[in-house]
Amino acid sequence: MRARIQQLIEHQHMNRQSFAEHIGVSPASLSQILNDKQKPTLAIVIAITNRFPALRYDWLLDGKEPMFTDGTTSDKNSPTPSQQEGATPPSSNPISAQSQPVGSASPHSHASSPGSSAPQYEVKYIDKPQRKITEIRIFYDDQTWESFVPKK
Fold it and tell me: Which residues are within 8 A (CB) of 55 and not within 5 positions of it... i.e. 6 or more apart?
């Protein structure tokens, strides 16, 4: 799957940093996946498929061709870095319109894929208490340091 993620990055004419920002994950997480230090998680797969709706799960998970559902190279769906915010919603509307009739014909064929459970996840925001500074330490190049503690 790492090679296919790298292939998708190259296909979209992006670097790792811009691809990570585009799909909404940290560049460090993507770098660890692409450098064989970590396996891709379900969250990464969902993030990729949410940002690239024409991308086939079969291709991403197993390498089964073609890469995109409509059989094209998806140049019309690949946003340039300057168009990322504006190009994504228009490209997802025609694809979702095309995939609705197809999806209604075979909803059970993709029921076991990880992407079919994507709409079930909800983001829950947890209110955290405001943090307070307890100590500030400054380290100098002569191997000395100072600690500063705020008055209470």
Answer: 8, 48, 49, 67, 68, 69, 74
Contact predicate 38/29, CB 8 Å: yes
Report the C-alpha gap between 102 and 28 in whole angstroms.
Answer: 37
Give backbone dihedrals phi and psi of 144, rounded to 5 degrees, phi first: -110, 165
In the chain, % of residues over pLDDT 90: 12
| Spacing of C-alpha 131 from chain mean position | 29
Helices 42-51 and 16-23: crossing angle in degrees, nearest 10, is 90
- DSSP letters, 93-121, are HHHHHHHHHHHHH-SSTTTTSGGGGGGG-
| H-helix segments, the chain | 2-11, 16-23, 27-34, 42-51, 57-62, 84-105
Question: Are 140 and 147 spatial neighbours (Cβ–Cβ below 8 Å)?
Answer: no
The alpha carbon of 104 is separated from its chain's Cα centroid by a whole number of angstroms, namely 26
The pTM of this model reads 0.45
